[in-house]
Every structure is written in C-alpha cells, then in structure tokens.
Specification:
Distance between the termini of chain A: 31 Å
Number of helices of chain B: 14
Structural class of chain A: alpha/beta
CATH architecture of chain B: Orthogonal Bundle
Strand order of the largest sheet of chain A: 6-7-8-3-9-10
Low-confidence stretches of chain B: 321-341
CATH superfamily of the largest domain in chain A: P-loop containing nucleotide triphosphate hydrolases
Strand content of chain A: 15-25%
Number of helices of chain A: 17
Low-confidence stretches of chain A: 1-15, 252-257
Mean pLDDT of chain A: 81
Largest interface: A-B, 54 and 43 residues
Structural class of chain B: mainly alpha
Number of domains of chain B: 1
Strand order of the largest sheet of chain B: 1-2
Number of domains of chain A: 2
CATH topology of the largest domain in chain A: Rossmann fold
CATH class of chain B: Mainly Alpha
Shape of chain B: globular
CATH topology of chain B: ABC transporter involved in vitamin B12 uptake, BtuC
Shape of chain A: globular
Largest sheet of chain B: 2 strands, antiparallel
Distance between the termini of chain B: 43 Å
Oligomer: heterodimer
Largest sheet of chain A: 6 strands, mixed
Helix content of chain A: 25-40%
Number of strands of chain A: 22
Strand content of chain B: under 5%
Chain lengths: 500, 341
C-alpha cells in the first residue's frame, strides 16, 4: 500500500449538512465482519462513487442505508434527524432514500404505467391520471416509451429506465445505484450520467456503485473505497487519474503468490472460434477470461457447458458442441457457476451428498450406494482443499461460504477425471484463506494437464488464479499476458476498449 | 451444556410426529383401555395398509418436488378395470395385471404432462383426479363390480404366522421407500431434484426422467391400493379410492416431508401413517360421530402443513448454531498455507 490513509473522515468537498449520514456501522454475518465501524455520508449535490472488490462491503453498506439490512451497531441520520434502523426498506423509501438495483425490480406482466404507480397514492387514481403520471415521470428522464406496454416486452435498458422513473417520481433525497451501467450501451450511459448530474444540481444526493472506473471518474464528485469492511479512502474524485485509482483499488495483500510453472502442452486443448478469431486454451495453464459484470465471458462458459447455444469449438481436435450439461459432463467438461446458491448447492442435502452427486455410479455396488467409499472421497477432498470444520453429514446450507464454495468446486475434482474445468467467479464472496486454497487447487489441476478456464469481472481474481488472460469485450478479444501490475493493465485494457 | 438443548431441539424437529403418536395412543388408552391391545394394533395395521402403500411412494414423489393428487381416482379405476377383467376372463392374475397396467398408464400420463410438457403437478393431477374418477363411474355405469373370483378375494384372508398378508405388503412398501431413500442412487437424485432442480440439471442429473419414473411408481402404487381395497371388500366400486389422495397427503406432510421438496424421511412417514391410523381408529373406539372424523382428519392435514415450515427452520437452526461446525477461522486457514509474500 502507499500513502493513502485509511481514514473515514470528511472528504474535502463535503458540505456540512448531510442528506444521509451513517456512523459507526458494524455488520457481521456469523463470524465474518462485512462492515467494521464504517462511516458514510452524502451531502446535497454530491455524486459519490462507492468502490471496492467483491466482498469489500459495498452492497452491505447500500443495504444498511436503504433499510434492507439491520446493522449490529451504528447510527443513522437523514437530513440531520436521527432515524432508528429497523431494517425496513419502506421506512427508508418514505424518507426519500431509494435504491435502483442491477436487475430492475418490476412486475413483468403489468404495464409501464401500472409499474410506475404501483404502491403509491396515485395507484387509486383513474386510468388516465395514472398514464399521465407515468408519462410525466418518463419525460423527466427524456425517455419516450408507450406507457401501455407490458414490462416484459421491454429491453433491459428500457426496464432500467422505468425503474428509475418510478424512483424519481416522488420525493427523492438520496438515490443509490447498484452497477447501473452494467447492461447499458455507451449512449444510454451518457444519458444516465446527464440525468444524474441534473438530479445532483437540484440538491439531491447520488451514490454510484460500479466496477467501471471510467464511468465513476466521469460522473462522480467524491470517491469512497471499501476494503475488507473498512473505509480505505474517502476523497474528491478529481484527486485521481484512472491509473491511480486502479492502483489504489488493488491492495497488495491480494497478490500472494501461487507457484507458477506453466508449461503449456503444444497439442490438444480447447479451440474456440468466436467472431472470426480462434482462441486456443492449452493444457497446463489456467486462463482467465476477463470482462464486465454480465459480460460475454460468462456466456462463453454457458455455451461450452451446453446451457446456451453451442459455439464452434474443438476439444483435443474433436468437435465439442454439447447441447446439455449432461453431454458436457460425459465428455469430461465440468462447470462451476458463479451463482453458487442457485446453480450449485443442494442446501438440504449433506455436504457429502453435495460432493458426490454427479458420481453416484462410481459409488454404487449392486444397486446400493457405498457410503464408505464416498466418505473416503470426502476426506481426500477435505485435505486437498484444506476444508476446516464442517461435518460431512451436516446439511450443506449450514456450512460457511468458503466451505460451500470448496464443495461445489471439489465436486468436479474428485469424481471422473476432468478434461476441462470451467469456472465463473470461483472466489467470489469467499474469504482470503479459501481463495488461496482454491487457487492452489486450480494450479495443481492445470499441472495435471486439465484445461482450466476462469471467467471473471474481477481483475484481482484473475491475477490470483490465472497464468494469462483474455480481455473479453466487443468483437475483438485480446490477450493479456501475466506481467508487472497486471491487474491495472487488465482494468485499463477493459476500460479503453469499452470507451472505444 | 448448550449442545444438549440443540440436539434435543433437532431431535424434536425431526421426530415430533412420533411423539404426537405416542401422546395420541396414551389419550385413547385412557379413554378406552381396550384400545391398547394386540388385536387393535393389528386392526389399525390392516386399516392403514392401503393408505401406507400409496403414501410411501407419494412421499418419494413429494421429496422429488412434485405431487400426485389423482391417486384416489386411479385406485378406483384400477379396481374396477381389474374387477371387470376378472369377471370376463375368470382369471385373478389377469385382472391384477390389468389393474396395475391402469396405474402405470395413469402415472405415465401425469408424469409426461408434468415433466415433459412442464405443467404444474398440482393442477395436472387435480385434473386427472376428476378425469379418472369420472371414467371409473362411466365404465361401470356407476355400479359396483361384484362377484369377484375367490382366488382374488381370498388374498385378503391370507395370514402368515397370524399376520394378515396386507401388513406384509405395507411392510414391503416401507422397506422399498427406505432402501431407495437411504441406500440407492435414485434416492439421492430425488432429494437433489426436489431440493434444487437447477443445480441438479447442471450436475448432469436427468431431472425430468427422475420425476417421471416416480410418477409411474406412484400410479402403480395407487393401483395396488385400489386392488387391495377391492379384495378386502370382495367388490370393486367406482368410488373405492375416494379421499385416498387427501389422506395420503396428510400422512406425507405429517411425516415431515417438505411440501416444497428436497426433504423427508421414511421413518417420519411411517409415524405419520400410524398417527392417522390411530386417530381414525381411536375416534371409532371412542364412538365419535363419523362425520366429525372427517373434520379431525382435515384439521390434521392443516396442522401438518403448518408444522412443515417449522420443522425446516428448527432443523436448520439447530445445525447452523452448534452441531455442524466450529466458527470458520480465516486467519489460521491462511497462515496454514504459509505463503504470504
């Protein structure tokens, strides 16, 4: 780390009166501290950029401020008046504290005007009055949409606009935006930024959570970075250049080494044809696919595992176009999804069952399961992945986040030998120790000549796990070899391509 | 010692119905001392045998994340078709096979609509409940199929070592459920599919096939239940199985099987079965009005749904708080690796 002080104090540009002020906020989830004694305030006219790695505490902070989560300790004032923190989003909404999530929270089967007026006094107005209200709300955003359209017919960007219109159409003090430009194009992003500036000029406060550093630098007036649940810095935005910002955001602690002896086999491996380019992923290396949140790298994972339309690919020379996960698995290609809870975990089943479920045949004799053989596999997995605590008969839902992640990764390492392992954000929401354990396991796997692909939108994750990376943006994906200050180069590579 | 409290809580969450059963037996014995006799126990066992034969596979289906509400009508249909085949061929075996065939076909139709056409299982099987029930009335013209061959009605009279054959069939059903759920890969898949079907799909489990096969088994079980009832009554009526679906579902939910799927044990289902059996029998022994019995069974079903959620929460809390694992210690895990440059 450099001279940046870990201060939570007033930023230079902050006005004395705060629209919302949080002090001494402390949140912990069963032993892990998500926020430690953190302070956060927003003054009228400010656009505050909230930064940090996954698990740094950004979303926890937003949840506390918007009432979705009740902290263990801490105080909150809105417009100088103390507000009890009950963990009730409606209470905060009435006070004019609103949040726009990455996924617009709308009712798809209702029309635009229904969605905009739902749950407000206008809900009971006449149909025409509601349509007028919705039209005016959309006009504030400079958007022209037919308010009679059902929401499910809208594009993602359009839904976001409807969600925004809904938030803006009543009293608004502070607006929190969670990755608002994640799915927006360049023009839509510019429109959004112009709108945010206008809102701020009217004396409202904006909090902008994003991984897109360029967007943040363009629109924000002050930057607050979180790391490990604490405020790492809190400064005016004009104090940073892009390079300094990415430097400040990649704390040295994450750069612990994993022994790298990548010797890539000349033949075999996976060849993928995309946009007229051929990408080759050899045996012996861990390759990162780096891109935006919800970027194309994740889609490629789905395609290779048979969840999305297959791409033209060859595995060890033979065509590889699985149409279902079952087919991919049969050919030795396994996948660890980024959404562990939804796509990976069987929360009510035991940890052991979670580990061996794809391999029940290997543990069956004369139609019956052999618990003993499965238990041996469990012990091997426990050792290899350095699992601490956690009984194999405990339900998987009761394990810690790190152990759960080790379970869904380990599932593919201790069954039939993988030829290729695909992973999306495999160290997301996992503590530092578990991250390293997973890194070591992937490294070992690559040495055993397994193709390992890691898709991620986090530069530090790529740097921790991978030997080289491909920056996935637009039509022309480019290679990014491991180098000095790799994380910065990755981020810069992505933002410059994105701006182009 | 806090562990003891947690373990007790966990035990209660999983075995509450068993304790309820013991309590129920004590109450009825107090009201009528002849309740707790070997003879009466055998009566109860016989009375719940068809119900158990249907409830055990139904429990497996619910664990797998679907439900079949048509079992009552399928039982009736299997009974009358079996009876008609027996009358026209004079062969009990052919009649039984025809009845089982009806069950398999009914289960396969339900399964195909739910698994391959992706329709909601409650709605589909509510529809087939009505359809099979109507069809059973139609083919018999609403009349009882009487005069079944002696080979068939004689089955209900067979006893082995003083124990009626139907109790052996019930025991076989329980063993079948137990072995599948605890010892067979198919059982693991049922839990997985019911607990998180998307995750199962991504692990290569053939989700729809697993559920479809269970629908077929439930259909066959319903047919066995219908045939058992017909043998016992020496006649097949088009309303033989009426109400079987509700009673079976009551047993399943009382047994602690999560209606949302993914959770449940056969021991609980057996406790639920005998709870319903004891309640029904006890109400008879204590001379409760037959109409009120319906009321009590309905209330039991509602109570079963109410405890469904509580069980899940209690069990989960008990595991998370102390039994499962010590607090994860990130710092030691990190230093144990020893590479911190």
């Amino acid at each position: 780390m450099n001279e940046l002080t870990a201060a939570g104090g007033e930023g230079a540009g902050a006005a004395p009166a705060s629209l919302i002020a949080l002090e001494g906020i402390h949140v912990s989830f069963g032993g892990t501290h998500a926020l430690i004694d953190s302070a956060f305030r927003v003054a009228p006219g400010e656009i505050v950029g909230l930064l940090g790695h996954n698990g740094a505490g950004k979303s926890t902070l937003v949840k506390v401020a918007t009432g979705a989560l009740r902290p263990d300790r801490g105080t909150m004032t809105v417009d100088g008046a103390s507000v009890p923190m009950r963990g009730e989003p409606r209470q905060m909404e009435r006070l004019g504290i609103k949040v726009i999530h990455q996924d617009p929270a709308l009712t798809p089967n209702l029309t635009i005007y229904d969605n905009i007026t739902l749950g407000r006094p206008e809900e009971h107005a006449s149909r025409d009055a509601r349509r007028r209200f919705a039209r005016e709300a959309l006009a504030l955003l400079g958007a022209k949409l037919n308010v009679d359209r059902p929401v499910f017919t809208l594009s993602f960007g359009q839904r976001q606009i409807v969600d925004l219109a809904r938030a803006l159409s009543t009293n608004l003090r502070v607006l929190f935006l969670d990755e608002p430009t994640g799915a927006l194009g360049k023009r839509e992003t510019e429109n959004l930024h112009a709108l945010l500036r206008k809102l701020a000029a009217e004396g409202r406060g904006i909090v902008y959570v994003s991984h897109r550093l360029r967007d943040i630098l363009e629109v924000c007036t002050r930057l607050v970075a979180l790391h490990g649940g604490r405020v790492m810095f809190n400064r005016p935005a004009n104090a940073f250049t892009l390079g300094e910002l990415s430097e400040a955001l990649s704390p040295g602690v994450m750069r612990r080494g994993v022994q790298r002896t990548a010797s890539v086999a000349e033949t075999g491996g996976l060849e993928v044809e995309l946009h007229g380019q051929t990408h080759r992923f050899g045996r012996g290396e861990v390759v990162g696919l780096f891109g935006m949140a919800a970027g194309p790298q994740f889609r490629l994972m789905d395609q290779l595992f048979g969840i999305a339309e297959p791409v033209s690919a060859r595995l060890d020379g033979a065509p590889f176009t699985p149409r279902r996960p079952r087919e991919a698995i049969r050919q030795g290609a396994y996948y660890v999804s980024a959404d562990r809870e939804r796509d990976g975990l069987l929360p009510e089943m035991s940890a052991l069952d979670n580990l061996v479920l794809p391999w029940l045949k290997l543990h069956t004799r004369f139609l019956l399961l052999s618990h003993g053989r499965a238990a041996q596999v469990f012990q091997r997995a426990q050792q290899a992945l350095n699992v601490r605590g956690g009984h194999m008969d405990a339900s998987a839902g009761a394990l810690s986040g790190g152990n759960r992640q080790k379970l869904v990764v380990g599932r593919w390492l201790f069954g039939r030998r993988p030829r290729m392992l695909l992973l999306s954000q495999p160290t997301q929401g996992v503590d530092v120790g578990a991250r390293t354990d997973i890194a070591v396991a992937l490294r070992r796997l690559a040495e055993q000549q397994v193709i390992v692909l890691v898709a991620s939108s986090e530069a530090d994750e790529i740097a921790l796990l991978c030997d080289r990376a491909v920056i996935c943006e637009g039509q022309n994906w480019i290679a990014s070899p491991r180098s000095e200050r790799w994380e910065e180069r990755l981020l810069e590579g992505l933002v410059t391509r994105n701006a182009a | 010692m806090p562990h003891l409290g947690k373990r007790l809580q966990f035990f209660l969450a999983r075995n509450g119905t068993l304790l309820g059963l013991v309590l129920l037996v004590l109450i009825f014995t107090a009201l009528n001392p002849s309740f707790l006799t070997w003879r009466n126990a055998k009566n109860i066992g016989q009375a719940v045998s068809e119900l158990g034969v249907v409830a055990v596979p139904l429990a497996l289906l619910v664990i797998g994340g679907a439900v079949d509400l048509s079992v009552g009508s399928v039982a009736s249909m299997a009974g009358v078709i079996g009876g008609q085949v027996m009358l026209s061929t004079g062969s009990a075996i052919l009649g039984i096979l025809a009845g089982l065939g009806v069950g398999a076909v009914a289960g396969a139709i339900n399964g195909a609509l739910v698994c391959f056409a992706n329709l909601n299982s409650i709605v589909v099987t509510l529809g087939s409940l009505s359809a099979w029930g109507g069809l059973a009335l139609y083919v018999t013209d609403g009349q009882t199929v009487a005069g079944l061959p002696d080979d068939f009605t004689g089955l209900a009279e067979i006893t082995i070592l003083g124990i009626p054959l139907e109790i052996f069939i019930l025991a076989a059903a329980i063993v079948y459920g137990f072995v599948i759920l605890t010892r067979m890969p198919y059982g693991r898949r049922l839990y997985a599919v019911g607990g998180n079907s998307r995750a199962s799909f991504l692990m290569g489990v053939p989700v729809q096939r697993v559920r479809f096969l269970m629908f077929v088994q439930v259909g066959i079980a319903a047919a066995i239940g219908g045939l058992m009832l017909s043998a016992k009554l020496s006649a097949a009526t088009p309303i033989t199985g009426q109400g079987l679906e509700l009673n079976a579902l009551t047993v399943v939910l009382l047994g602690g099987v999560a209606f949302a799927g993914g959770m449940g044990r056969i021991s609980g289902v057996v406790a639920g079965l005998f709870f319903v059996g004891v309640l029904r029998d006890g109400l008879v022994v204590t001379d409760t009005s037959q109409f009120l019995q319906q009321v009590f069974l309905g209330l039991t079903l509602i109570a079963a749904v109410a405890i469904d959620d509580t069980i899940r929460q209690l069990a989960h809390r008990a595991w998370t708080s102390s039994i499962a694992e010590p607090e994860p210690d990130a710092v030691t895990a990190q230093s144990a690796l020893g590479n911190s440059d």
